[in-house]
Design a protein that fits this description.
The relative contact order is 0.13. Helix 1 crosses helix 18. It contains 18 helices and no strands. The chain is globular and about 65 Å long. The protein is 68% helix and 0% strand. By secondary structure, the protein is mainly α. The chain has one domain.
Length: 388
């Protein structure tokens, strides 16, 4: 890697990102509309509306955008959700665009930024093979496609904050890995403002900084000042929200109370968390919910395997980001939304792109495996089923 590399993705990378994002979105929108028509009471007629995209957290975010965190129409325990995404929804919907449409538009833009940044990050660090260039399938392009077809990719389409998070997290890591810490602050701040997972991104970036300080002692003082400054700036969204909550709720940490009281999330030991998830078999739960808990366990195993692979590769920053994120999810009252958490752990698709580099059939097999799962997620979500 050299400092002379361009800061922004190239025109070709932006073009690839736009094509991939719009193509996958068009497919998912068509699938969602047909599912609503055939399964959702549309009586076989085409469904052109977008309300089937306002489900679960997308509805909560939209309600916050419409009514804020306080007042009679506010969503209960809404402070569990950071304010950046609702503020963006509110800003766009203030122009007259319906809030659900605003969410779909914003996630599209954010996903394009995330995908272009991912292509740039991966291709910058990995030499292109001649056969890959001819086929147009560079490692970065494969990583982007794997991300867009991830089993929980529906949350990059619906009005969720995952796309905004990735639009900040991926550029932040790219700049950090190149030692350009002065450019880390802005994208890292975006990621932290979008999701609480951003705090674990900062853990990964801090470990990346320490690794660089040890590898480049001659530049340690300068890197430390810039890196520490960038990480400090990135904490400002949390501090600002906590200060606002202190004034409104009387408790700067009421977002933790909201997680506990609204969603039953408490910190427990990892064994207790696994046992509580496994023993849902004995509960009086619908079969679909029981299945999702089994899939939560599968996702947890995949996440742990990812951390092991990253450690073995000495990708310390990535490993710290993924490991700290999973540590919180696997010490909750029970496993909850782990498959969705894997979506924002973008090092997973980076590793997958590495493993399939030079093996086009393996890459094709991954796409064939992922695409139906992503499509299933779109159908389940837009039909109102629980999908993590």
């Amino acid at each position: 890697m050299t400092a002379a590399a361009p800061r922004w993705p190239s025109r070709g990378e932006w073009h690839t990102a736009v094509v991939l994002v719009l193509a996958t979105r068009a497919a998912f929108w068509v699938v969602a509309g047909l599912a609503q028509s055939l399964l959702g009471g549309g009586a076989g007629r085409p469904v052109l509306g977008v309300q089937h995209w306002r489900r679960w957290d997308a509805d909560i975010y939209a309600t916050i955008a419409e009514h804020g965190y306080t007042g009679p129409a506010a969503e209960p325990w809404s402070e569990a959700f950071p304010p950046a995404w609702p503020l963006l929804l509110r800003a766009v919907s203030a122009t007259g665009v319906p809030v659900t449409v605003a969410g779909l538009l914003l996630t599209t833009v954010a996903t394009v930024v995330a995908v272009a940044s991912l292509i740039r990050l991966v291709d910058e660090e990995r030499p292109r093979r001649d056969d890959a260039v001819v086929a147009g399938a560079t490692p970065g392009t494969r990583a982007a496609l794997f991300l867009l077809l991830f089993p929980t990719a529906v949350f990059l389409v619906a009005g969720y904050s995952e796309a905004l998070f990735l639009a900040g997290a991926i550029p932040a890591f790219r700049e950090a890995r190149r030692g350009r810490w002065g450019r880390v602050a802005l994208p890292a701040t975006v990621a932290v403002a979008a999701r609480w997972t951003g705090l674990f991104l900062l853990v990964g970036l801090a470990v990346e900084l320490v690794a660089q300080l040890r590898a480049r002692p001659d530049d340690a003082d300068r890197s430390l000042r810039r890196g520490a400054g960038a990480l400090a700036v990135a904490t400002l969204p949390v501090l600002a929200f906590a200060a606002w909550l202190a004034g409104v709720r009387g408790d700067p940490l009421s977002f933790l109370t909201a997680q506990r009281e609204g969603w039953g999330r408490r910190f427990v030991g990892p064994v207790e968390s696994f046992r509580a998830t496994w023993e849902t078999w004995a509960g009086d739960y619908p079969p679909a919910l029981l299945l999702t808990w089994r899939l939560e366990i599968v996702a947890a195993l995949v996440g742990v395997a990812l951390v092991v692979v990253l450690v073995r590769r000495r990708e310390w920053g990535y490993a710290a980001f993924a490991g700290s994120t999973l540590a919180v999810y696997l010490t909750s009252s029970w496993y909850y939304s782990v498959p969705r958490a894997l979506l924002v752990l973008f090092p997973a698709v980076v590793v997958l792109a590495d493993l399939t580099d030079g093996h086009p059939r393996a890459a094709d097999a991954v796409v064939v495996f992922l695409a139906p799962l992503a499509t299933l997620g779109v159908i389940v979500f837009t039909q109102g089923g629980w999908f993590f």
